[in-house]
Amino acid sequence: MLELKVDGFSGPLDLLLDLIEREQLDITALSLAQVADQYWQHVETREGLEPDALADFILIGAKLMYIKSCALLPSASPPLEERPREEGDAADLTRMVEEYKRYRDAAGILSELEEKGQRTYTRLAPGKDISLPPGLQGVTVDTLMEAVREALARKPPEPEEAVLEIESVTVDRKMGELSLALERSRGRVSFRPMLAACDTRTEIVVLFLAVLEMIKAGRLWAEQESPFGEITLVEAAAEPA
Q1: Better-scored residue on pLDDT, 12 or 140
Q2: Dist. CA 207–CA 173, nearest whole Å
Q3: What is the model's pTM?
Q4: Taking the CB of residue 39, how many other CB atoms lie within 10 A of it?
């Protein structure tokens, strides 16, 4: 199994998830971009991509991504310790991974991300040292996840050969593309058109993670002026609407 060496953690990926789920490690202090990049570097050093190993990584990565999105973005839900844990979430995701292993089809895994927008999840309280960036007007985890779900639903499943010869699309690369788009459009871009411009479902998920990383770093605002309205990503240097 891949041994990670990122800021604040060194060890296998499954141990990382276990520590975060037991709240012994603050996910808001962890760079998921580093985790993803190290995984792809690991893949590129191997002759072939093992479907079972990819399924395990997507399972753990999806859990980490959702936990971090809940911790970073505001929600009306009470903290995790004040609500019962929704054990069905992990079971549902595991079921999707087993389906992927049977059919060797990455679309089976990413469809689990599509379904997330149709369920309610508990929220992890942000760490004491983390202050959420201002300007998140009307935007919650559910709001962003719904936009991602819609974009995933419009993309056809990727064929098996595309999964086995997957091109590395990194979070850092997406952050760079997003910064360039903001620069070209005077510091404001619409989220949904950017999702629609992605070529694959994998790219959609990576873009979503890039947005979360930039929000955490204070480089980005996200706002929505009305329910079901357009989600606008705003460069931190620009004035929010």
Answers
A1: 12
A2: 9
A3: 0.45
A4: 21
- pLDDT, one tens digit per residue, over 1-11 is 567 888 778 88
The answer to whether the CB of 9 falls within 8 A of the CB of 16 is yes
Closest to 156 measured CA to CA, from 97, 104, 106, 206: 106
For 21, phi then psi, to 5°, come to -65, -30
Tell how strand 220-223 and strand 9-12 pair up: unpaired
Integer Cα distance of 175 and 40 in angstroms? 17
pLDDT at 110 over 80: no
- Alpha-carbon dihedral of residues 36, 40, 46, 50, nearest 10 degrees? 60
Which residues are registered as beta bridge partners of 79? Answer: 123
Neighbouring C-beta atoms of residue 236, cutoff 10 Å? 17
| pLDDT tens digits along 19-62 | 887 878 888 877 877 887 777 777 667 655 565 566 667 767 77
Closest Cα to residue 214, out of 167, 180, 168, 169?
A: 180
The answer to whether the beta carbons of residues 140 and 232 sit under 8 Å apart is no
How does DSSP assign 121-142, residue by residue? --BPPPPTT--PPS--BT--HH
Separation between Cα atoms, residue 35 and residue 182, nearest integer Å = 25
Tell me the HSE value of 153 on the side-chain side, using a 13 A CA sphere.
Answer: 12
Structure tokens at 16: 């990382």
Helices (H), 117-223: 141-154, 160-164, 171-184, 191-196, 201-216
Q: Which residue has the tokens 């990503």?
A: 233
Helix (H, G, I), strand (E, B) or coil at 118: coil
Distance from C-alpha of 42 to C-alpha of 33, rounded to nearest angstrom: 14
